[in-house]
Design a protein that fits this description.
With about 475 residues, this protein is an alpha/beta fold. It is about 45% helix and about 15% strand. It contains 15 helices and 15 strands. The strands form five sheets. It has a four-stranded parallel β-sheet with strand order 4-3-9-10, with helices on both faces. Strands 5-6-7-8 form a four-stranded antiparallel β-sheet. It is elongated. The chain starts with a strand and ends with a strand.
């Protein structure tokens, strides 16, 4: 039985798709105004594990991830300027549509590289907000006709008072009241939580470089509008699963549900899954908190992207994960140790069925990756060697840690290194310890290690 924690019902439920063995999956993608930080990337890793686990259970998946390239203001509360406009100034670019497109493409390509380096399977569709203005305008028209939206001098707003269960997704979370408290009220808004569906190119947005005509004047869609319009276009309504980070619960996902259900009279999605924050000391990982660490920052310090993926798998996706450079180093050391052991296994033969069943049970229990990793280590340390390679490769279809590049691939040891190792043994036999240590250092400087075993020295490569 495959169980997932549904934020909407606040409990763990058996997963039952709308169509047998077919899943519609929508995941909130990046706003392409800057590099993704590793807190963002933790959510994408969780979504990748979900997707791989669905495949493990025999489901065919249609995965849609939006790309936000307009309409996301610096505050979730419809205040401030568009993040894309702010990024144009930050990078000294011309305030025109072409520069905006180039900026968006730059960070979209960076995002694709980051997720590729983390071994995240790409979505089937990556619709951009700027390429779906027609669908968003049609959604707003429908809400206006139904009396669920109203026009003011600066925007078209959704009337949250029209829904008795507005905020049901976030019920019971402290972030809800905090988020609503940050929402600025205006003289023309009917209710403080009302949110913008269409933002007019007036006032502070008059010089916005991305504008489109609409029945309410030139402007651009609100951040929430795009997800409702594009998810319906590509997946229909309702669809099976909607994912994102927990920061999306009180505002973005709450507002998606409100406008989608008001427009179409049906649930938006049946299951809502959210990844918890990555914390850095006392703060969550966020640009606004000054705790921005990118994947490139980690690589500059000598860490590999898959070491970060491994670190994320050590904590359940619904638990906060505190990031430290020490924990990342421990994760990299653990992963490299696994790679090095796997090099010397015989070629894959047969899977150990009981261990595979335990592994699947862990993942089918709301994606319990810590338990799945424990099963991986048990296989590495405790089962017959003839089963290890095939079993770990089967595990890695979900874990995505790149074992296929290491299993049964012992390093080629150059003749020069073998000669140094033999000379070291001669020095050790003669108790010439300084000479032996010098020879060991020469081996290590060349990228290899000498491990002394009861059967004699064993030469290993340093993981490259």
């Amino acid at each position: 039985m495959f169980k997932l924690y549904n934020t909407l019902t606040h409990k763990k439920q058996e997963f039952k798709p709308i169509k047998s063995k077919k899943v519609g999956l929508y995941t909130c993608g990046p706003t392409v105004y800057d590099f993704a930080h590793i807190g963002n990337l933790r959510t994408y890793i969780f979504e990748d594990i979900l997707k791989r686990t669905l495949k493990m259970n025999g489901y065919a998946i249609k995965h849609v991830m939006n790309i936000t390239d307009v309409g996301h203001l610096v505050s979730d509360a419809d205040t401030g300027e568009d993040k894309m406009m702010k990024a144009l100034r930050r990078e000294g670019l011309k305030p025109d549509a072409q520069s905006m497109k180039e900026l968006a493409n730059k960070y979209f390509l960076a995002f694709k590289k980051d997720t590729g380096d983390l071994n995240i399977i790409p979505p089937d569709e990556r619709p951009k907000a700027t390429e779906h203005i027609k669908e968003q305008v049609e959604l707003i028209k429908m809400l206006m006709v139904k009396g669920c939206a109203y026009e003011t001098a600066d925007a078209v707003y959704f009337d949250t008072a029209r829904l008795k269960d507005y905020g049901k997704l976030a019920h019971g979370r402290a972030e809800v009241e905090e988020a609503l408290a940050r929402v600025e009220s205006s003289k023309e808004k009917r209710n403080a939580p009302d949110f913008a569906l269409w933002i007019k190119a007036v006032g502070r947005h008059e010089k916005h470089v991305m504008q489109w005509p609409s029945p309410w004047g030139r402007g651009f869609p609100g951040w929430h509008t795009e997800c409702s319009a594009m998810s319906r276009k590509y997946l229909g309504q309702p669809f099976d699963i909607h994912c994102g980070g927990v920061d999306h619960i009180p505002v973005h996902h709450t507002n998606e549900i409100a406008q989608s259900e008001a427009a179409y009279g049906a649930p938006m999605a049946n299951y809502w899954l959210h990844a918890e924050f990555l914390t850095f000391g006392r703060n969550k990982m966020a640009k606004s908190a000054g705790t921005f660490i990118s994947l490139a920052d980690m690589e500059k310090k000598g860490f590999k992207p898959l070491a970060y993926r491994y670190l994320c798998l050590t904590a359940h996706y619904r638990s906060k994960l505190n990031f430290t450079w020490e924990s990342l180093a421990a994760a990299q050391n653990a992963l490299e140790s696994l790679y090095e052991v796997a090099r010397y296994w015989p070629k894959p033969e047969a899977v150990e069925p009981s261990r595979l069943e335990n592994f699947k049970e862990a993942l089918n229990d709301d994606l319990d990756t810590p338990r799945a990793l424990a099963e991986l280590w048990f296989v590495v340390k405790s089962i017959d060697e003839s089963f290890r390679a095939a079993t770990v490769l089967e595990f890695d279809k979900i874990l995505g840690l790149g074992f296929k590049d290491y299993i049964a691939r012992p390093p080629k040891i150059p003749a020069k290194i073998k000669k140094l190792a033999r000379q070291r043994e001669v020095a050790r036999a003669a108790k010439e310890w300084q000479a032996a240590d010098k020879l060991r250092r020469q081996v290590e400087e060349a990228g290899f290690l000498v491990e002394d075993t009861p059967k004699g020295p064993k030469i290993k490569s340093k993981i490259s």
